[in-house]
Amino acid sequence: MAPSARGVLPTASISIVLIALFVAAGFFTHGYVLTAATTSERLYTVRNDAARALKLQLDEETGIRGYAATRDRSFLDPYRAAARGRLESAFSRLGSDLATSRLAAAEPALADARATSARWNREVAAPTIAHPSQGAHRVEKRGKELMDDFRRDLDSIDGLLERRESLVSEELRAAIDRITVLVIVAGIVSSIVALLYARQQVRAAERIAAGERQAEAERRERALLQGAYEAEKHIADSLQTAFSQRPLPSLETLRFSASYVPATEETRLGGDWYDVLALHGDRVLFTIGDVTGHGIDAAVTMNRARQSFVSAALLDVDPGSVLARVNADMVAREDRLVTAVAGVADPATYEFVYAIAGHPPPVLAEPGRPPRFLECGSLPLGGIPEAQYSTRRLQSMPGATLVLYTDGAVEHSRDVIAGEALLLEAVEHAAEHPEVEAAAWIHREIFQGRSVGDDVAILTIGFSAEPTLGLVVSADSGRARLSGRVAPAGSDGTGDKAGPRGFALPRGLAS
Amino acid sequence: MSNSSIEVIKLDGELDVARREEIRRTLSLPAADRPVLLDFSQVTYADSTAVAELLRFHSEAGAKGRTVAVVIGNRQFARLLQYAGLRDAFAVFDDRAAALTYLGARGS
To answer: Closest-CA residue in chain A for B82?
Structure first.
């Protein structure tokens, strides 16, 4: 829900700002209207008090005028002291009104009116009461002048009041206009925000819908891939079965064990193989190899290389020659690089004859000695056509075991030195337990049940510890032959490129 | 001995099948007829892809009679070359200084 949450935050903050603006506008508007109303009320009071002062003054004037005309003293009622006090208090109230309404401009007019009223009182009313006979003329002449002055003063106050009132109403109108504009703007902004929010919501909904569509598409793709994976796994399994290691020969004089564990990371058809083919007289031809890379191509190359080994061994079983032929074959086909060991084990002579092509060195475990790596160092197969592979001869003893493996057995941690040490240790332990299947034991000890990132093939070929009765003769004859053959090559028998002669044609190769 | 008279080719990290094309491109014999130093001192892992390309480089250089020294800083890679017999085919050194000395002596 991240997309809609992203949209809500700015929308919410804009809404909060708008609400704050509205509240502030309302507050100021309210304050302003209140002030305007108070001002209007005060102005009304001022006008009222001014009207009252005028009325009282006119009442007095009317009274004096009536008295002058009729000499009836009842006309003087408004002019009694109490009445005059009312006019005075009306003036005072008007004065304080002007002060509170901040109408200082009207104060001179008020003072003038007061003075005029006092002058009228002195120059018209008092002489008229004292001498009524001249009252009518005085009232008409001087009285009229003063009353006109008085009216003018009050009129000027009234004019100021009107100006102030119109000012207030103008300000009020302007405030109302401002509020109207504010409301319109706020309305427009709110509409825009609402529209934006709505659009965001729609987009968020669209995104969610698109996400769901994509997830659905991915689910379908995964299902397809899973199907393809299953199909490939099926093909791989079928090929693995088809290319599976041939059964190991069963001989009295030689013990074999083998372990093949393909990479467990994914469906990987291994490029590793091993083969043991029975030759004449209990001798066996063994090969182990590893094709560069993985997958069906590697497996096909592997199968071709194995066939090539068999074909080459049919012509000449000498391991160096076998490797040279396979190399020529693979170079010609521009195949992948292959590393391999080919060899012959002869239980009659306790002799291993082997050749290596770029492959990790075999381990030899002999009774009473710690296991050791054999010499190695030669080009892989399929690289260059003129590569030579020397046949090495190794005189061993009863109970000796040769351990062949592919690089997965030593490169599992990418520290090949540690891997080699671990392998030697595992071989030594396996040799202490002749009753166990050595290859499986070694694999178990190295990997301890861990998953394997590369194919691992292990093949062991061991001479029986105790020669059986039926073999003594052949073993003896083997030794007899051996003494003649080993002497020129030295004790470790390496470097004899001529290869063993007199091998009979392989027997039972097709089995 | 001056280093400018030597062609240096350097590859780092893990040399495996994923980098096959890059390794192939990098490991091409320089046109100038000068000794070549293959500097693999920073290589941490190599598989047979590297071996295959080195093999090709080796035959190419051999055909043109060029002197090549290789510096290997990783034991696993050294083992792989040993398995492949390339340790003897090339002059292999543990450090660059020794390789340069060798090339300087051969080149002069």
So the answer is: A377
Nearest-CB residue to B83 (from A293, A377, A414): A377
Q: Which residue has the tokens 């493996």?
A: A405
Cβ distance A319 to A346 under 8 Å?
no
Residues forming a β-bridge with A462: A255, A401
Return the H-helix or E-strand segment holding A146.
Answer: helix A144-242
Task: Give A258-293 pLDDT, tens digit per residue.
Answer: 988 877 555 556 688 899 988 888 899 999 998 877
Q: According to the model, what pLDDT value does residue A489 have? A: 33
> Which of A343, A361, A342, A368 is CA-nearest to residue A353?
A343
Assess contact for A171 and A36: CB atoms under 8 A.
yes
Residues B57 and A69: their CA atoms lie apart, in Å, by: 148
Query: Residue A382 has what pLDDT?
Result: 86
Count of CB atoms situated within 10 Å of the CB of B97: 10
Average pLDDT (A362-369) is 94
Nearest to A359 among B49, B83, B88 (CB): B83
Tens digit of each residue's pLDDT (9 = 90 or more) over A293-338: 777 777 788 888 988 998 898 888 999 999 999 999 998 887 788 9
How many CB atoms are located within 10 Å of the residue A134 CB? 12
Q: Which CATH superfamily is domain A254-488 in?
A: PPM-type phosphatase domain (3.60.40.10)
Percentage above 70 pLDDT, chain A: 84
Instruction: List, in order, residues 6 or more apart from A497 with CB less than 8 Å away.
Output: A320, A388, A390, A391
Q: Show which residues on chain B lie within 8 Å of chain A, measured between beta carbons.
A: 17, 44-45, 47-49, 51-52, 55-56, 59, 75-76, 79-80, 82-88
- Closest residue in B to A376 (Cα) is B83
The DSSP letter of residue A461 is: E
Say which amino acid occupies A506.
P
Task: Identify each DSSP E strand in A381-450 by its residue range.
Answer: 392-395, 401-405
Beta strands in A137-237 (DSSP E): none
Cβ atoms within 10 Å of A158's Cβ, excluding its own: 18
Sheet holding B91-93, edge to edge: B7-10, B36-40, B68-72, B91-93
Query: Please, which contacts does A331-334 make with residues 24 or more away whose CB atoms are closer than 8 Å?
Result: A331/A382, A331/A383, A331/A384, A331/A385, A332/A385, A333/A304, A334/A382
Binary contact (A360, B83; C-beta < 8 A): yes
Structure token digits, residue A389 = 């592979």
> What pLDDT, on a 0 to 100 scale, did the predictor assign at position A475?
39
- The b/e string for A180-201 (b: 16+ C-beta within 10 A; e otherwise) is eebeeeeeeeeeebeeebeebe
Q: What is the DSSP string of B64-101?
A: TT--EEEEE--HHHHHHHHHTTHHHHSEEESSHHHHHH
Instruction: Note the pTM of the prediction, 2 decimals.
Output: 0.55
Q: Choose which CATH entry (3.40.50.10860, 3.40.605.10, 3.30.750.24, 1.25.40.10) describes domain B3-107.
A: 3.30.750.24
Residue found under tokens 């040279």: A324
What is the per-residue burial (b if ≥16 Cβ within 10 Å, else e) of A223-240? eeeeeeeeebeeebeebb
Please say if the pLDDT value at position A357 is more than 80: yes
